[in-house]
Amino acid sequence: MDYNRSSYFGGGFIMFEVIIWFFAIILIVPVEYIVENYFKTMMRGQGRSYILQPIYRIIKLFEKKDGTINYFACFFSIGAFVFSLIALYMTVAGFNFLFVVSVLSMMELFIIIGAYSANTFSGKICAQRAVSRFVVLLFTSMVAATTIYKTTGALNLGVLSGYSKSNGVFISLVFTFISLFVILLIKGNIGYFNFGISGDELSVLDAALFTPYSGWSLALVQMTHWIEIGIWIKILSIFLPLNEWVSFLVIMILYLLFLLWDGFVAKVNWKQSAKYSWIWAGGVSLLNFISLYVLR
Amino acid sequence: MGNGFVKGVLLLSFADLLNKIRTRSISVFVIQAGGCRGCVDALSMALSEQNTIKGITLTGNPKHADCLLISGCINEKSKEEIMQIYEKIPSPKAVVAAGACACSGSLFRRQGNQLYIVEDVLPVTSWIRGCTPDGTEMLETIVRAMENVKNKQAKGERDKN
């Protein structure tokens, strides 16, 4: 059976499923943040907020206006948003993993250049940190791609999804899975992997660090960030030997647990975050690489 | 609830709905200009308590902020920084002076150190007096200040039209 969905372009049910996945991923990540907000509201000492506060925040951002308009920031935020949608489509349609990573890289570069465009001190610092995060992501993705290809002989997400159901891919690629999950945590600015430049708050403790994105361009960056998290959850879900929706749900719950855990751990310096990211994403993915290419 | 709720929802105009949303998600940028930090601590305590006021979060990013809360006396050096941060906050925005130092100078008044109260530096929307002010009162004031700003903005738009 050909599991590659991209070969079924325009073909009835598969295309319908792709569309369902596309919109489901866009909607599910905000729902995840709403659930996190709900649990945190119930916890003592975590502050009280409305359940729909993540959505309110986005709507509010769309309405805010700066004194001057930075056209570069607007252009780059729109660009990043478009690329995130393309990457999302490629993911749900089962394209090659490296194609998806390259489009996500383009998206990330748009955000970085936008942050740099205002030529302010704070924007430059944000861009610098984003680049250091981006390097970890690229390295881990490359190593993960080689190990996935060595194990399965394919990189198409559609093929991998079918393959993982009938073979023990998860067991032989467990370190790759962990490293890609750490990429998800880095993207979500969670715990010790928080570089302090998230789309969520774009801030660091005790310092006013901000980018030129403001008002609706910041809201677009935030939505891009949510879509990107959805993409990584979908990519991770293909490793599990379960039904696509069930494995997606499992990864979502795992991510939710880490979101809640984030409320109880101290924030670390961004250089410390970079160190942890290299160890847990780059280093752990290398373990799988060594076990497949050197030890075998 | 029932009928009243449905009627309320139907009668709400889009602008009212947006106004409601804005006051349900208030990001506060706190500046401790100089003082004992009592006001900031009281605010943090109030935020972590299970009180009736919801939807207020602290942010370290002026681009996300709706409200600038300043406590303590402002000196010559911090004045510039505060003004820069105020300019970075996109409108609509509110400025709240919290505590006796920020409102009137308190103990530090006429000390000859070029000290300013918040009103000398920025257009203040609301004042919270007291040393140290009550935390819940601070939260209430932040919500009222945001409502004031929105109402003024809505009035301004109406007048323009």
Q: What is the radius of gyration of chain B? A: 17 Å
Give the SSE order of chain B as H and E letters. Answer: HHEHEEHEHHEH
| H and E order of chain A | HHHHHHHHHHH
Helix content of chain B: 40-55%
- Compute the CA-based radius of gyration of chain A: 19 Å
Number of domains of chain B: 1
Which range does the strand content of chain B fall in? Answer: 15-25%
In the CATH hierarchy, what is the architecture of chain B at level 2?
Answer: 3-Layer(aba) Sandwich
Q: From the 3D structure, determine the CATH topology of chain B.
A: Rossmann fold
Question: If strands are numbered along the chain, what order do they take across the biggest sheet of chain B?
Answer: 2-1-3-4-5
Query: What number is the mean pLDDT of chain B?
Result: 80
Q: Oligomeric form of this entry?
A: heterodimer
Low-confidence stretches of chain B: none
Number of strands of chain A: 0
What's the SSE blueprint?
The complex is a heterodimer of chains A (about 300) and B (about 160).
Chain A: H1 12-42, H2 53-63, H3 71-92, H4 97-117, H5 121-152, H6 157-166, H7 169-172, H8 174-187, H9 216-237, H10 244-262, H11 270-293
Chain B: H1 2-11, H2 14-23, E1 26-34, H3 38-48, E2 56-58, E3 67-72, H4 76-88, E4 94-98, H5 99-104, H6 118-121, E5 126-128, H7 135-160
Helix pairs in contact in B: 3-7
